[in-house]
Specification:
It contains 16 helices and two strands. By secondary structure, it is mainly alpha-helical. The chain has one domain: Farnesyl Diphosphate Synthase (Orthogonal Bundle). Strand 1 (89-90) and strand 2 form a beta hairpin.
Length: 288
């Protein structure tokens, strides 16, 4: 998996570098470059490995991989703003609004969201216009008021709710906030190939929930230096999380069960899905 991850990281970095060549050198563009640098590229991995399973070449899938990383970066830039989570650190570095100010950070996020749709709509993704349109439409659904933004809104509302969220409500919230973009990434391959999406959808939904549970575990057990961001904020705010509802051991056990379910869903692909199975196990072993 590490070898493939290195390949994906290099490919996405090259795609971003080429994309930014046409941009003027402004604070917004410098912020865009900054926000899209680094990271584990888990979503890009899902795109490119899911595409590989369906015979799609990396030269095509990297466009969608960069698109989802641009969309993810936009969400982080806005999530870090003082009016949202008010974070000073991201990936061990000052957040965009700390370096360039809040107004520039808002514009950086706006521009990254637009870049995501520009990348996924490019003819290099597919010669079939219907495929490109489907990817753009489903990305809009996953990122917007039916997906990630809905999850973020539910999360904000939970901060001032009179009663903590139930396990079912947190699961629903995270299906949007974290899971929607993860599922979109995993389904790029079959959508590009115009193939059945069921197996990878089952995989991605289990993986997305496991991912968020591990984030909650890290928030309780992690170190800010190692995590590259603030930890312990949920507990300090009194927010209900998977850990607060299930206990630390219970949350870890739930994540392990979900990863097993995710890996089982890929059995139809045989050994070709080994990397995606390793990625699922990596998700609940990470400390950042």
């Amino acid at each position: 998996m590490k070898t493939r991850q290195a390949q994906v990281i290099a490919a996405v970095e090259t795609r971003f570098a080429e994309a930014f060549q046409t941009f003027r050198d402004t604070p917004v563009v410098r912020g865009m470059r900054y926000a899209t640098s680094g990271g584990k590229r888990i979503r890009a991995m899902l795109v490119m490995e899911g595409a590989r399973l369906h015979g799609i070449d990396d030269a095509q899938s990297v466009w969608a991989a960069a698109a989802i990383e641009a969309m993810h970066a936009y969400s982080l830039v806005h999530d870090d703003l003082p009016c949202m989570d008010d974070d000073d650190l991201r990936r061990g570095q000052p957040t965009v609004h700390i370096k360039w100010g809040e107004a520039t950070a808002v514009l950086v996020g706006d521009a990254l969201q637009a870049l995501a749709f520009e990348l996924v709509s490019d003819r290099m993704v597919s010669d079939v216009a219907e495929v490109r349109a489907d990817l753009a439409l489903t990305l809009a659904h996953a990122a917007g008021g039916q997906g990630m933004v809905l999850g973020q809104a539910l999360d904000i509302a939970a901060e001032t709710a009179e009663t903590p969220l139930t396990l079912e409500q947190i699961t629903d919230l995270q299906a949007g906030k974290t899971g929607a973009l993860i599922e979109w990434a995993a389904l790029v391959g079959p959508r590009m190939a115009q193939a059945d999406t069921m197996a990878l959808s089952t995989y991605a939904r289990a993986l997305g929930l496991a991912f968020q549970i591990q984030d909650d575990v890290i928030d309780v057990t992690g170190d800010a230096t190692a995590a590259g961001k603030a930890v312990g904020k949920d507990a300090a705010a009194g927010k209900a999380t998977f850990v607060s509802l299930l206990g630390l051991d219970g949350a870890k056990s739930r994540a392990e069960t979900l990863v097993t379910q995710a890996c089982d869903a890929l059995s139809i692909y045989g050994s070709k899905a080994d990397t995606l199975q390793q990625l699922a196990r990596f998700v609940i072993s990470r400390q950042t």
